[in-house]
Amino acid sequence: MVGVSIVVVIIAAVVIFEIVSKLNKPAQGLVSNPTSAQSAQAVIDLIPTPGGGRYASFSYPSIMQQVANSKLITPVIAIYNYSYRDVESWKLAIEVLQIPSGQLTDNNSYQTRKLNPQQYQESHETINSQMIDVMTDKTVGGFSKVAFLVHGQYQATISLYGDDPSGVDILQKTFDMALGNWHWLAN
Question: Do the Cβ atoms of 48 and 177 come closer than 8 Å?
């Protein structure tokens, strides 16, 4: 009986020794290092989320987070700010202005860009049967566009700037989402 006990203790000691030695060995595995463009592209999902308020409604990607708005200063009557950060940052800023003349030339943001053609390239897009002026900043890397929408005495500026390791296509899609889903609610 004593002999059997000694054998059991020896076997238990050998088993415990084997387990402990295996636990103390370095782990083996496969390490992959995807490029940042691949990992960023896999995460970015452009699911439209409704935004807006009293004057207009629009959509923005659900990946973007709403940011605290700055104080309203006349003629600005509404502000909507959103941001997204992965490897780089994006910022979507939307302002609704009340300009009694209804003229885009009375919009200071538009005028500043119009008077600086060496920095801003003007183009025109038709979205939802409305002609929209778009200014692109030619001096920055990445994406930087501002669209100017007019609706009677109301105007909106939709600005998106940022960069992304997967390229500017994803930013253009975000910009198009905001413009393509824009609806004026004010008369």
Answer: yes
pTM higher than 0.70: yes
Neighbours of 100 (CB within 10 A): 9
Paired with 79 in beta bridges are 95
C-alpha 172/C-alpha 166 separation (Å) is: 12
Domains in the chain with CATH codes: 47-184 (3.40.1000.10)
Nearest CA among 133, 114, 113 for reference residue 123: 133
Cα 162 to Cα 9, 17, 33, 89, 137, distances in angstroms: 68, 57, 25, 6, 12
State the Cα angle at 23 between 22 and 28, rounded to 5°.
Answer: 80
Q: Which amino acid is at 161?
A: Y
pLDDT tens digits, 90-118: 999 999 999 999 999 999 999 999 999 99
Give the tokens for residue 3.
């002999």
> How many other β-carbons are positioned within 10 Å of the β-carbon of residue 122?
13
Distance CA 119, CA 146 (A): 13
Q: Tokens 């006990």 appear where? A: 5
Q: How far is CA 21 from the centre of its chain?
A: 49
> Amino acid identity, residue 111?
Q
